[in-house]
Description:
By secondary structure, this protein is an all-alpha fold. The protein has helices at about 5-10, 15-25, 40-55, 60-70, 70-105, 115-125, 130-145, 150-160, 165-175, 185-205, 220-230, 235-245, 260-265, and strands at about 245-250, 255. Strands 1-2 form a two-stranded antiparallel ribbon. It is rod-shaped, with a radius of gyration of 34 Å. It starts with a helix and ends with a helix.
Amino acid sequence: MLTIGQLAAYAGVTVRAVRHYHAKGLLPEPERDASGYRRYDAAAVVALVRIRVLADAGVPLSRVQQLLAAGDEEFAAAVEDIDRRLRAEIRERQRHRERIASLAAGDSLALPPEAVAYLRRMRELGFHDRLVEVERDSWILIAAQMPQDVPALMTIKHRQIEDPVLRRLYLDLGDLADSPADDPRLPELADRVAAFIEAAAAEAENLAEHDTYPPIRREVIELLDTAFLESFPCAARMLELLEERGWTGWTDIRRIEPRAAAVRAG
């Protein structure tokens, strides 16, 4: 006859586990002997080993008792059902692991792979961190509202960012990230931005096919423009300078009719 410690050692479990199985009703608890100790026989060892094997295989303790008492066919069916459940849990955990691994990069939080690749390219090109952050937050907003359009939008953005003129504009804007509204470099940069917009608009009119953005809801555009204004001290002045040159907006840049532009300038 064995003590509880000896029983646990034979079965390869802890004494605490044995007591837990007693409490769950999985392992009968013997009467105490004259010395006040519980003594276990060989049948208890066999039962405990079977419980341990089932538990180690992932069988919920709530089902262990059923399996211990089941016949061959019932046991096989129950094991198959448990196996299906475990495989489903493994797949779900694998998805969680993949998601956690992708979050290690930071940008992957709430962003599709195309947008993450775009932000990575911005960093490779040396863009100011604040510009990258504004782009990241902007694409989080866009992806939340129109996820189906992000791949097409990113194709356009990737092509645009490789344009050396636009790239230079981005880099120079980054240099003004902490500049005040009266920075003397702003008018010259506004001239170049307006010239680039003019050239892009003229090229689009002359091409049968050109980059066309899916429509973005007005409230999203307003959020994106606000993010730009809040991120750069000189942003409001830059928009004013662009309006003087006939263009309005930042996320959705539009030409101002000459009369309207004159009124704004006046």
